[in-house]
Amino acid sequence: MASKHAEDEPEERLVNRTGDFVLTTAYFVEVVLIFWKYWSTSTHDFMVLITMIGVTAIAVKLTELFCKYVMHDIVSKKILGTEDDHPLDTHAIYTKFVGTAWQFVIHFTMSCLETYVLLDEPWMSTTWTCFDPLIEDFIPKPSLRFLFTTQIAIWIYTCYSHRFNSDAHAHKDYFAMYIHHIATIGLVGLAYNTYERVGIIVLWVHDVSDIGIDVMKLTNYLQLEGLKNFFITEMTYVFCISLWGYFRWYLFPFEIIMKSSMFALVDNDKYLSSHGTTGMAYRMIERYGIDSSEFHTFLYSAGLCNILLVVLLILHIWWGALLLRIGYRMLTSDNPHEAGEAEYEGRSKKSKSTAVANKSKAE
To answer: Minimal CA–CA distance to 175: which of 163, 167, 161?
Structure first.
């Protein structure tokens, strides 16, 4: 959709070129390594991976068409506003709405698939077994293997889009989100064909909680706040922060990292013994010996996996603080839409709220 005015374009933000180059290089290195791992493990899975990248691109395009012909032309123009004045009438806001819409479709679809795969598995209730390389005869069921390949395809596509095809540079968390994408790709890539049990619970926690973020942003772009629109934006904020607190601040650090981290792996007296097992590192030593290649491979992969988990946790804390600041601004101002602009979105060169303010001053 063409921009109405040049001043509707997102405000340019200065991006550190060195940091951007380093992260982009890391992204392409990860993609090459994942392609190589897939090709060397299973040519069938490799072809599924390539196919699902294409399917993701098609799904994104279909979502964009739905946003244009339904959300923009009907909902925004005819239901929530008029032809010349409606919530999505600026190019910057419409672009952000479309980007969030296809993220919502992905997060909702993947949450449903992950829940289906997890329904008959014990991994969420016994998270300390997820890292255990000594569980005999563990073979990922076809649905889990397909889910992993689909997720890797999605993260490869969305990370590329974040860097090259979106308005992400206008957001204040551009680098935080870029690091998050790269860390997640690394985790999912490590988990494929080795630790799918860890990968699926990490992906499930992320996708379910991301639904709240997406819904809040979509209602914010549509300006469904206040008494006129039944406080929908305010209610979705409460929904969002509730999901974030439970999944990202409770389940992720205490049920996944603490019960499955290197601390739990080696502490066979204090923690894991109360759950009827011993530290996995000790068990690896007992079976293979401390100088064995099996033990060293386990130690390095588990260590790298936990480093990436901690990186994600730090980002969760940072984003959670950002959400709380948005909530504070919503409570202390009359405009939730402006609160989101100030704390996260970044303003367009002439955002709608700025235009309204200027109009009021002129009057």
So the answer is: 163
Amino acid making up residue 173 = D
Q: How far is the CA of 36 from the CAs of 22, 42, 46, 53, in angstroms?
A: 21, 10, 9, 16
| Residue recorded with tokens 């479709």 | 105
CA-to-CA distance for 233 and 226, rounded, in angstroms? 8
| Helices and strands (H and E) in the chain: how many | 13, 0
pLDDT in tens, 31-74: 999 999 999 999 999 999 999 999 999 999 999 999 999 999 99
215 φ/ψ angles, rounded to the nearest 5 degrees? -65, -40
pLDDT of 69 reads 97
- Phi, psi for 11 (deg, rounded to 5): -65, 135
| Residue of 245, 237, 233 lying closest to 209 (CA atoms) | 245
Phi, psi of 114 (to 5 degrees): -65, -40
The C-alpha atoms of residue 221 and residue 76 are separated, in whole angstroms, by: 10
**97-107 confidence digits (pLDDT tens):** 999 999 999 99
Q: Is the pLDDT of residue 349 over 80?
A: no
Among 78, 3, 37, CA closest to 190: 37
Instruction: List the end-to-end C-alpha distance of the chain, in Å, as a whole number.
Output: 32
CA distance 219 to 91: 17
Query: What CA–CA distances, in Å, run from 115 to 107, 110, 112, 199, 362?
Result: 12, 8, 5, 13, 54
